[in-house]
Hints:
The chain is an alpha/beta fold. About 35% of the residues lie in helices and about 20% in strands. The longest helix has 16 residues, at about 135-150. The termini are far apart. Pantoate (PAF) binds near residues 141 and 142.
Amino acid sequence: MNTVTSKNIRILHTCEELKLWRAELKSAGNCLALVPTMGNLHEGHFTLVNHAKKEADAVLATLFINPLQFGPGEDFERYPRTFKTDVDGLESIGCTAVFAPSLEELFPNALATHTTIHVPILSELHCGASRPSHFDGVCTIVLKLFNIAQPDCAIFGLKDLQQFRIISNMVEDLAFDVRLISHPIIRAEDGLALSSRNGYLSEAERQRAPELYRTLRNLSAQILHGARDLRLIEASGCNRLAEHGFVVDYLHICDAQTLQRAETTERLLAILGAAWQGKTRLIDNIIFSKPTF
Length: 293
Ligand code: PAF
């Protein structure tokens, strides 16, 4: 187990430690914001923590690489484990506590027989089509963290827009008493959405990667300038990405709330995309209002 001695941040490794700490917090009348992460933190995560500090008396960040949300052959094994740097970063920005359980602590029983949460339809679209069971894994761990930490609110970045909508549906359907907060995507200067997986990119791939966001902007501009055939616009985006060395997983123009494919009537649209640069799968999205056609 990683041990870090730190004066200004509480490090919790077990569910029991977390529950005790949470109970102390409650009896002191303090409310809690949760920032779930898989570690390898970057500026996007730190922005979530800073946002969370404004929403609650105490902020708990979780560092846990959740095996349930990785499919066979995905990057679970090589996902960067950067515990010490993560804790130092969290401490430096005034995060109150960190929960970093071991795999055995959170999953004492076999993963194959673990209860899972499934949000139908939306979990099967977009990223869910190429990563079956990914969102079941996300929902299961998020609900488990909610159950253990009992946060008053929880904050998620909108780079994972589909994840945020699915978690919102789960919380509503299961009547879980937590306020969900979303935070806008944090981007590098060249537009690339910050992601822990950006570290996998070679120099040449990193140069090409911002084209994903440029393409989303280009598609939204086409719509704002009156283009109407949304399937044709999607196809033009796929071609553009392919020209920049991407292998496109999907590029979908959707209703921003339901994330169902848009036809022509929706006012608030989201364009969601996932594409590979080499061995790295990047996702991004853009939300915008379109004038009525
Ligand atoms: O967005 C993520 O980093 C993960 O999906 C989450 C919410 C921490 C669950 O493992």
